[in-house]
Amino acid sequence: MSHNQLSRRMVLKSLLSGPPLMSAQIGSTEVWDVHCHLTSVAGETPEARMTELVRFMDRLGIHRVMLSLGFPLLENPPPRQLREENDQVLRALRRWPKRTLGFVYLNPNHVDFSLEEFNRCVRDGPMVGVKLWVAKRCNAPELDPIVERAVSFQAPILQHTWLKVNGNGPGESTPFDIVELARRHPRAMLICGHTGGDWERGIRVVRASKNVWVEIAGSDPTSGLVEMAVRELGAERVIYGSDAGGRSFASQLGKVMGAELETRARNLILGGNLRQMLAPMLRAKGLA
Amino acid sequence: MIIDTNVSLSRWPFRRLPADEPAALVAGLRKRNVRGAWTGSFDGIFHEDIAGVNARLARDCRTYGKGILMPFGSINPKLPDWQEDLRRCQEEHKMPGIRLHPNYHGYDLRDPIFAELLRIAADRKLVVQLAARMEDDRTQHPLMRVPPVDLSPLAELVRGVPQARLVVLNSGPLRGLAPEHRVYSDLSMIEGAGGVARLVQQISASRVLFGSNYPLFYFESALLKVKESGLTGEQSAAVLAENARRLLSR
């Protein structure tokens, strides 16, 4: 029996018998999720919402999530609200320090404030990465100081990207944009959020950009996504993420558990790559 | 044991899938402890010779199914003499139900032909599977953009056909529907952390069916969603198999 078959059987057995899936059943790795939010989750406070998310994580054997964005979801938050959103994430991190890490939400339309917020939350705080969403397309020169700051602290950047056949929003980045950014910042660790949504195009777009990783969150669990990403990019450039609570942890985890993969590749995707990416930051913060 | 109510044979036109040959599909299902699979055909979405599609589906289910595959023929009520296709599905191919794709076949649920089809199928005691979509409309092929089916007329329609055995596939939350509407839903496109638990709250555990949209989707995504939702053992058993078995035996 292959490792691949073994893992699938264990998932099934666990489901039918009731107890939570443990990482030992998923593979020999801790499962880390690079893309998680406090939105679309029940609870009045960040602590309550994170507690709700941890309930779902426990059922699936997900050890840790990279948390970003607060609530309500704001596409182009002004400084005061950006700070409030990051404060919400900081509260959730304090409540669940062993189950979370934080990515600071920044807005390239407010560069100076974003740099201050990076210092507050990453340099001087517990956060370990940067989250950029849809305020401005990521090929814009305004991103350069933010990326330079992230590079200087070896902090990865999770950038939302989509290639929507019905048209992107005005500030919504595409994988083409992240490739431009990667060329300007070859030392940056850039994570192409959602693999561009249209993953068959997204993977091709970022293929030659070696400092761009793809994360698989927030799209339908269409067969073939993970296999194509591994074939074209190598397992070392593919990262599991869910985009929970708007998406199900499970529907996205199923992309990795259902893919035809060697165990080593599956473990890299489920957490190995992310831990390697974050290793300098975690060491610096005494979290390794 | 699992009964998967949302499986398809043949080829998806826009990519090859890991189990798009009948033998591979059956092997994949058996490996995952699926003991029954309500099986449609991707060809039924795109082909005009629906009678040929359904005959092939019935033959493949017999030849490769090993007792697992139950054929659900496609009906396109916009094709001439679709009633004959319906008759053949039941009388010749012994199918327990049919599958509809209104958005790909060019009608909406307010079209009187849908109510007529629902009534005829109900009279024949056929299960009707209504696929709300096949994929995210943001990621469709640029020359094949098909918006999802507007399900808002359903609540009113099923009041007029109380004996209908209607299953919605590939939908998000069924807005406007409650347990009293007696509409079933699969969970293949139910999203959000704990989304299946919310669906159970909305339409009751007795109306939620396990459906994976395999092989177009990863089977494990549907399976893990059941796990994520923390259903009781009784609810899980109902969703994974019992509801489907009961619906077919009604």
Give a verbal description of the structure.
The complex is a heterodimer of chains A (288) and B (250). Chain A has helices at 3-17, 23-26, 46-60, 79-95, 111-123, 143-152, 175-184, 199-206, 225-233, 249-257, 263-284; strands at 31-36, 62-67, 100-105, 129-132, 157-160, 190-193, 212-215, 238-239. By secondary structure, chain A is of the alpha/beta class. Chain B is an alpha/beta fold and 250 residues long. Chain B has a single domain (2-249), classed as TIM Barrel (Alpha-Beta Barrel). Chain B starts with a strand and ends with a helix. At the A-B interface, helix 1, helix 3 and helix 10 of A face helix 9 and helix 10 of B.
State the shape of chain A: globular
CATH topology of chain B: TIM Barrel
Radius of gyration of chain A: 18 Å
- Widest sheet, order of strands of chain A: 1-2-3-4-5-6-7-8
Report the CATH architecture of chain A. Alpha-Beta Barrel
Instruction: Give the termini separation of chain A.
Output: 35 Å
Biggest sheet of chain B, open or closed, and with what strands and sense?
8 strands, parallel
Whole-number mean pLDDT of chain B: 96
Question: Regarding CATH, which class of chain B?
Answer: Alpha Beta
What's the order of the H and E elements of chain A?
A: HHEHEHEHEHEHEHEHEHH
Strand content of chain A: 5-15%
Relative helix content of chain B: 25-40%
Q: What number of structural domains do the residues of chain B give?
A: 1
% residues in beta strands of chain B: 15-25%
Encode the helix/strand succession of chain B as letters: EHEHHEHEHHEHEEHEHH
CATH homologous superfamily caption of chain A: Metal-dependent hydrolases
CATH topology of chain A: TIM Barrel
Give me the side-by-side strand order of the main sheet of chain B.
Answer: 1-2-3-4-5-6-7-8
